[in-house]
Amino acid sequence: MTLAPDASDILARARADLRMGVPVVLRGPSGAAIMAATETLSSTRLADLRALPGTADLALTDRRAATLKARAYDGDLARVQLPSDATLDWVQALADPADDLRVPMKGPLSTRREGPADLHRLAILLCKAARLLPAAVVVALDDADALARSENLTLVDAVETGPALSAAPVLHEVISARVPLRAAENARLHIFRPEDGGEEHYAIEIGRPDRAHPVLSRLHSACFTGDLLGSLKCDCGPQLNAALGQMGAEGAGVLLYLNQEGRGIGLANKMRAYSLQDQGFDTVDANHRLGFEDDERDFRIGSEILRRMGFSAVRLLTNNPAKIAMMEACGITVAERVPLQVGINPHNAQYLATKAAKSGHLL
């Protein structure tokens, strides 16, 4: 029988549960724990978690811990010990930097030094996969299976799901159809769906590109504000239109539209970063205060789509050397970097300067 959920199915369930505020049980070689995403946690569930006999921690990334001046003894994360009187407001204030300037002092914070942190690390990865703030309440358990059964909770085994959590999504083309565009009437839209239940990604194929030669291509990450609303805070919309226009002028090309909003942190977290930028932080510092890295996108998705469409080499429309490196690392030859410098305006000049200075963009 193959009806039971596999590792990808279990991870998809866990992501959905965390977004709804439902805790998830974790099991690994070092022991067991129950976790809840801080962002969607309720007072009632926090009280229920605190009532369990195990030790309770708030798992934060080292980026967020640095903002809070909390020691990250585990390197990439900190395990903040929850005091007995910790309220939901206190817990969520540690995870969300919205009030950092208004209430800068949140400590002193005591972080755990002893014991394994592998399940706390898994908890943060699951929060990121769910497009939530990367922070989780984690309570140690003696028997993961018993609690998962009695409370009907999703059980994530670190050993069984670890490879699926770190692997590039397996994509399948669902359908393609002709979609005439202003930039090119001879366009087709291809829909690709990942096996892990994640968001679909798209490929816009202009003309009939020769698979034997490098194709003019762009990896474009979805930007609701820039692509749809015409936001002036970024250059995404102009880049999208300029790339399609250049492909239309040449008569051939492939634009990959990847649903990795906000450099992979999701629209809600991108708006949190925008709010921090309004307070004076640049785009990189804002991501760090939220607990994220500079860029959380998975560029392996683009290389997988190109391969499935029969392409092995590209002329890449980009200003980002990281995209070139990732394409090459994934087996796609970048025969040429084609600059795409458009959309500069007074509202995004500092944003673009930060991308050049801190992220190495060639602007």
Q: Descriptors for this entry?
A:
globular; single chain; DHBP synthase; 7-stranded mixed sheet; 363 residues; Rossmann fold; alpha/beta; 15 helices; 6-stranded mixed sheet
Topology diagram in text:
Elements: H1 7-19, E1 24-28, E2 31-37, H2 43-50, E3 56-61, H3 62-68, E4 77-81, H4 88-95, H5 118-129, E5 135-141, H6 144-151, E6 155-157, H7 158-166, E7 171-178, E8 187-194, E9 201-206, E10 215-221, H8 224-228, H9 236-250, E11 253-258, H10 261-264, H11 267-278, H12 283-290, H13 300-308, E12 313-317, H14 321-329, E13 333-338, H15 349-359
Parallel strand pairs: 1-6, 10-11, 10-12, 12-13
Antiparallel strand pairs: 1-2, 2-5, 3-4, 3-5, 7-8, 8-9, 9-11
Protein name: GTP cyclohydrolase-2
GO molecular function, one term: GTP cyclohydrolase II activity
EC number: 3.5.4.25
Say which CATH homologous superfamily of the largest domain is assigned: DHBP synthase
Kindly report the spatial arrangement of strands forming the biggest sheet: 7-8-9-11-10-12-13
Number of helices: 15
Identify low-pLDDT runs.
none
From the N-terminal CA to the C-terminal CA, the straight-line distance is 55 Å
Pathway: Cofactor biosynthesis; riboflavin biosynthesis; 5-amino-6-(D-ribitylamino)uracil from GTP: step 1/4
Domain GTP cyclohydrolase II: 175-339
Binding site for Zn(2+): 223, 234, 236
Protein name: GTP cyclohydrolase-2
